[in-house]
Each structure stands twice: as C-alpha cells, then as structure tokens.
Amino acid sequence: MYKLLIIEDEEEILDTFKDVFEHDGNITYTASNGLEGLKLALEHTPDLILCDITMPVLDGFQLKKKLKENKKTQDIPFIFLTAKTDIKIMREGMKLGADDYIVKPVSNKELQKIVYDRLQRIQELSTKISNKNELTKLTPESRIIINYGKASKLVSLNEILFIDVVEHYSNLNLIDGKKTVQKKSLKSWEEILPPETFLRVHHNTIVNLNHIDRIEPYFNGALVLKMKYSGNTIMCSKRYSQKIKSIFKK
User: Is the pLDDT of residue 88 over 60?
Assistant: First the structure.
C-alpha cells in the first residue's frame, strides 16, 4: 500500500486516477491546483506525486521548485502529467528533478505500470544502499522502507512511536496504531537511529522522544512513560531513567 498525491485540474481525469489507485488498496490524496497540492504534500509526505504541468494558481513547474526547497518534500518521487509532447517542456521537467513523465491520455494499465515500476525501482535502490552501508546514520527527517508481509511502504521516522523486541527481530509500532515485524535487531536500530530523537529506555524497547506524553515516577527510581496516540505504557529501567530525566530537564 502506498500514499499517492494526484494533482490535476481536470476533474474527470483526477477522479479516474484516484479510483485506479484506490482500487489497488492505496491511499490517495487529490488536489485541483498546485497550491492545494503543496499543502497536502507537506501534511502527508506521500510516497509519490503525480502532477499536471498546466494548472491554475501554481503550475506543475512552480510546485516542483517549492517542493525542492523543503527538506521534508525534496526527495518525494515526482511524475509530471502532460498533454503536450513538446520535448522542451519534458526537458524542463526533468531538469527540475522529475523522475518521469506521463503523456495524457494514458490507459489505466499503462498508468499503473509507470507508477508502480518507479516505486519499485526506488525501493530496490534504497535496499541496495541500506545493504551496502547498514550502519549509515539516519536523520530525524529520514524516510525508511518497512515491510508489511509481501508489501513495502515508505515511512518517515516521525511515524514510529516505539520499537520493541519480537524474538530475534523487532516490532515497529507506528503512530497510526499499526505494527509490523522487521528483520532487524534492536541493537541494529540503535546504531542507525538519530540519538536526539530515539532512545533505548529498556533492554527491549526504543522510544521516539517526540511522542512521550507523560513521564511518571515508579519504584526505586525507575520511570513509566505514557506514549501519545496509542496510550501505551512503557517501563523505563532505572539505568535509563537518568537519561530521560536529564533530557527533559533541559
């Protein structure tokens, strides 16, 4: 399942594209002009953006430039939609960093192939980079690929509520309530996650510090963490409680 943003000022095309991808189980956000699309991109950080070039308020080229100026959106895969086949227009789009372009009209089957092939190539590239340098440190703005059974999904680190141990692997608990087991140890996560955002608070738990709702005292100097969104209660061992106290004392 992917999060897709479709920006198109022709209502019929917009509705058709939305139906095509939602039928496959994806989440789709839609906008009829570039300004609306920019707001949705900043709010939802989609896995891919499909965007028409000629639009009111803010056209496709102007939107792409604004997305490149923001760290949160600069790396989102971007495909232009255009009814024009002028090579100069296509080159302009590629210079701005577009990953591909689709010339309208396009069949549903061809549309799906172009979008899913692009997402698959991005995933494969990310996996190769990850395998090549497993210990590359992530930043708070990083996005990672996580597995949902046979499917994959791009998520931002901020979507992770906490990570705990499941046998020899780890369980990612997301802010939307979903959980997914990953073939990575807690130690491996600890080595690559940004320490200013993620902290091990127990031998089997790492929490996102941004999502701690309350901190309550417990027995013998230990602490209990109440997490946002889920209401989960996480025990913070005495060893790590001092770190929590020093962080939130600042």
Answer: yes
